[in-house]
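Batch job 17 of 40 flagged for manual review because the log was empty.
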Amino acid sequence: MDRAVNSDPVNTADTGRRQRWRNLIGFWLLGLCNNFAYVVMLSAAHDILQKQETQNTTTPTPAPNETNIEISNNNNSSRYDCNPVSTAAVLLADILPTLLIKFTAPFYIHKVPYGFRVLVCFFTAVVSFLMVSFSSTILMSIFGVVFASISSGLGELSFLSLSVFFSRDVLSGWGSGTGAAGVAGAILYSAFTQGGLTPQVTLWIMLVVPVILAVSYFFLLVFPSSFPQWRRHEDGHSTSREVNSQERRPLIEEETDTDEDTETTQEEQDNCTGHTFFLLTEDKHIRPLTFTDQLYIMKGLLKFIIPLGVVYFAEYFINQGLMELLYFPESHLSHAEQYRWYQTLYQIGVFASRTSLVCFKIRKIFLMSLLQCLNAVLLGFAVYYQFLPNPWVVFIIVLYEGLLGGAAYVNTFFFIREETAKREREFAMAAASVGDSLGIALSAAASLPVHHYFCSF
């Protein structure tokens, strides 16, 4: 489009920078709130579930030392100091709703305007906090976990798709925010509860998180003028402002993306060749993607989805299947403290690597999946043979594990955006989000028998 003759280039540049920073901060907050609520709510749900299980399965009898006499599940003779139920069981319940959404939603979610999607994320997050805080039964708490999983899963695929409407740097903001959520969520929840607040009161305070998410989306982001906020796409999965200016491009391609708002010329359109799933009719309208088209795109995305899934499979196999078994009785740190430091250092590694996109990019995701599998094998042997001298060695490995996982996530979606034709990006970003959730679900299922095997010693 032609710019006005009297436009001030300095003011235009300043406005562009302000908008860019608003969008970057907005996506950082969206990433933080989308994952933060999930982390905090699940921590509280675990506490409340523990309390309810004790109340429902034991009959407390006051003892002289004001403790309760009950049958303890922790009096096992295993050398690994096992919990009666693996943390993988909790993870499996947490991830299944998200996995179901990510498997199915990319094929129909484009029919739901983004504004309504965010409202659904907001309300389901609020419901999850309230259900868990007021829960009086285990079933009610589990439903609270389900609502949190719905909010997180729908939010992740929606915000990843949303990023294609903005400049590419918002992906670094999103990645950094999601990485920060794990660290901030764990620290704040522990700080509030150890400071004397009950999990219930802590959850009431955390209701501010979905509010921040809604404010960041509706009031902080600067949307393109043609953005379909409250209406469905009329032209399918397309990010173009001018239908006539879009060229035919291959499904997955190497392209130099100089400016997201740059319009292609008619000469460039005439010179382009290749297959596309957006066909122009005689009146210059774009045919939406068919189900067959979407399956073809998914096939092209497998080179990203599979390595990402493998990274997360190995990563969560370590986190939920092996970490609680990596216990060093001689250390001055208790078992709970060792496990807490494992999780904290892992989250710090994730945060650092998801923020690294602004500094460097790593194209070879399969290399990170291989390295993560080596971590899982090493720690698996360490659990079985117990040859590591102290938890400090595990601290280093776990930090490295988080670095690999975070880098794999943020680089996967960066290169999907870069190498996918513009008209397929929105669908591709949503569809590829299934990779990490699938890996997590499979790792949870695999971790259960591993936990049972080692704890039988």
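Reviewer: the log was empty due to a logging misconfiguration, but the result itself is present. The longest helix spans residues 9-57. Unflagging and moving on to job 18.
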